[in-house]
Design a protein that fits this description.
Blueprint (H helix, E strand, L loop, with lengths): L2 H13 L2 H8 L3 H15 L15 H28 L4 E7 L7 H12 L3 E7 L2 H10 L4 E5 L7 E15 L10 E3 L7 E5 L4 H12 L5 E6 L2 H9 L5 E4 H4 L7 E6 L4 E9 L6 H14 L1
Parallel strand pairs: 1-2, 1-3, 5-9, 6-7
Antiparallel strand pairs: 3-10, 4-8, 4-9, 4-10
Helix pairs in contact: 1-2, 1-3, 1-4, 2-3
């Protein structure tokens, strides 16, 4: 049985005639009669009372007619839904964004994409890179922004940004008047770090270790705004990427870090050999054109 069997049967019932139904379907009367006969043989029931001049449903025919209409409606809705998805009239994109990548670039790009495809919605998840990688790998997220390196065997990557880190201090700190500072000079400073969900947590600890010291960590947070407030209250110092430093208030100041400098590189990732919805694929294509 395929959907055409049911659709021809429905039309025959609605028209109460094989001939009229055939005319409306632009097929021959023997074709629709054969289709209905095949349907009866497959279901093992008689659909019409053959003794009547006009088509009258049997009890079994009425049950099948009622269900066939539901199936036909569902099939029509399915086709419409798929057409809308293919034409990008609707869809959902599940995207992971670290809360420390800056507040303007991706919102502006998402806004421009939404203007082009107004019925496509974004479900945004704000996590650190580690969790974003896990959720892209598991299929919870279609794509995400992470700090490189990422697992090249598991993910396709679209690198798009590299920048240095700066030291963030209270304006009255003894180092505040300087333009730059060497990382080993911070060995006695209390540090406020991003929490362990963030690759930056490990990156900063590793950089300090290579510089010959283990930082004294007094607090951790997932929100750069909260870390800024703690610095403004004199709790300690932190290392922020340059893009975040551009958004800081006058309650703190920043210095360039040298010998060694600390950098990060960001990329959009998505899982290799994973089916992606039409909307997600279009967003990745749009993003690639914007970033490259």
């Amino acid at each position: 049985m395929d959907i055409k069997h049911l659709q021809y049967f429905i039309e025959a019932v609605n028209c109460k005639s094989f001939t009229r139904a055939a005319d409306r379907l632009f097929i021959t009367q023997p074709t629709i009669s054969k289709m209905v006969k095949n349907l009866e043989e497959e279901l093992g029931v008689q659909l019409f009372e053959r003794s009547r001049k006009k088509l009258i449903l049997t009890d079994a025919g009425q049950v099948i007619y009622d269900q066939a209409k539901l199936i036909d409606k569902a099939f029509t809705n399915l086709q419409q839904e798929l057409d809308e998805l293919r034409n990008l009239k609707k869809g959902v994109i599940r995207l992971g964004l670290p809360p420390i990548i800056g507040t303007s670039f991706f919102p502006k790009m998402i806004g421009a994409f939404h203007k082009k495809y107004p019925d496509i919605t974004f479900h945004l998840a704000e996590h650190g890179s580690k969790r974003i990688e896990e959720e892209v790998a598991s299929g919870i997220l279609h794509a995400g922004v992470v700090v490189l390196p990422a697992n090249e065997d598991a993910f396709e990557t679209l690198p798009y940004k590299e920048e240095n880190f700066r030291l963030v201090l209270h304006p009255e700190h003894p180092f505040a008047h300087r333009q730059e500072i060497e990382l080993p000079e911070l060995k006695r400073e209390p540090f406020i770090l991003f929490n362990k969900d963030f690759v930056l947590h490990d990156r900063i600890l590793s950089a300090c270790s290579k510089a010959g010291f283990q930082p004294k960590v007094v607090s951790e947070s997932s929100q750069w705004e909260f870390i800024e407030e703690m610095i403004a209250c004199g709790l300690g110092a932190a290392l922020f990427p340059e893009s975040i430093c551009q958004n800081l208030s006058s309650k703190v100041c920043t210095l360039k870090i040298v010998n060694p400098s600390i950098t990060w590189k960001l990329a959009v990732i998505w899982k290799k050999e994973q089916y992606l919805p039409f909307a997600a694929r279009e967003w990745l294509s749009y993003t690639r054109n914007q970033l490259l």
